[in-house]
């Protein structure tokens, strides 16, 4: 089936936390509109930009086979849609099933411009679990009272971590631990004995989160638009960019129960630990409870619980949902992910101490966004990468003790290093966390692909023992993975989607500082293994 949507990006006033703020929305709603489709459907979205600045929209987790032209990251696959302009994107849902999402991909506008994409099973097929009685999207977002672009610009000018958001929200609402927020707290109405599919989207800008429901376990059945082997848990760990599909059965006595959202923070972080709330309310006749049960969940810096959750994710990998993990690796990257410093030439733009500014890097290269579309440059140069980009080295310039010794130089270079792959390459990227400038988790996200998380662990990656423990049988197929602080994550994928695809940390502050690169997958020999040509109506770059 084909679906068509017309979206208007515009400024809209909302009153939250006792303050009226003007935010950018799609069609006036926060979170934005949902897209509903079945696997195999195509969705056309026309985005009319009636906002004050240029914007682009990205379909996070949708592979967009052969069609990077509709992927959306600004200056990677297109120039922004200018105020007054519009752009129609084609979203081809041939590979995903479950929940993915969409968000703005220009500066920090994704703070308020985002929404869920529900992908139901294809006609004639069904869920790999009993049909749920209810289906509800739960979106986590960051709420700033002030304009989020000002927050970004202040952070850039100050050269330090941006302000923490004023609240995390659950379906747009902070909940009753905040002033002026009790009446509007989100509540999910349930009926005793019924089972609900909750489609959880973490659209928060800068923090990984824990989520739990009092007295109710969750059965995780999907993540990032693919099914996983069901497992029961009393908390979720979810990074920005990730989605989790969970089943919850209303099997407790009819009452109210808190759902609670709280950040997982690095111990070094200055971020606060504000908790956001929502309710599960059973239908029926009972007196409103005077005290509502609250869940217990991991401590704010409990990296062990965070990792224990990640390693429970396994692909369903049954006959109807086969997987295909590359085992004949033709391209291998060992990639350090770091927050470091950049020595400013002639001391211009120096914000840390007069000589340096904050930067973030992959293999010690901090990515500079161009001001044109890299995809268009690639296409116009007849697929010649060397005209507009350099190659990112396949390992860090100097090996060092990544996670225990801090005495190595903090400095990074700046540039436009990309990864160029041949069609059909079997690729392994080993992300190695470092403690150069700060030790933080980094939720790494790749456009255009699902990838297999074949291993993750703590410390420096050990090519013997760690590699020997890789899961090549049923690793989860995901699009975003939190590389643990002082640890590593290994991913594999087959380069079978030609195009120009952004690879970046999904913390907005780190993408701003350059923790990104671009994966260019060359065309194969046939039309079916080559990029489609651009539509005639790409947003102009000048
Ligand atoms: Cu959620 Cu570049 O993406
Ligand atoms: Cu990061």
From TrEMBL:
Its EC number is 1.10.3.2. Its cofactor is Cu cation. Its main location: secreted. The keyword Protein biosynthesis does not apply. It catalyses: 4 hydroquinone + O2 = 4 benzosemiquinone + 2 H2O. Pfam families: Cu-oxidase (PF00394), Cu-oxidase_2 (PF07731), Cu-oxidase_3 (PF07732). One of its GO terms (molecular function) is hydroquinone:oxygen oxidoreductase activity. Residues 9-121, 135-285, 392-524 form the Plastocyanin-like domain. GO terms for biological process: lignin catabolic process. It is an enzyme of class 1 (oxidoreductase). It is found in: Secreted, Extracellular space, Apoplast. GO terms for cellular component: apoplast. Keywords: Apoplast, Copper, Glycoprotein, Lignin degradation, Metal-binding, Oxidoreductase, Repeat, Secreted, Signal. It comes from the Eukaryota. Binds 4 Cu cations per monomer. Belongs to the multicopper oxidase family. Lignin degradation and detoxification of lignin-derived products. This is Laccase. The lineage of its organism: Eukaryota, Viridiplantae, Streptophyta, Embryophyta, Tracheophyta. The gene is LOC111315972.
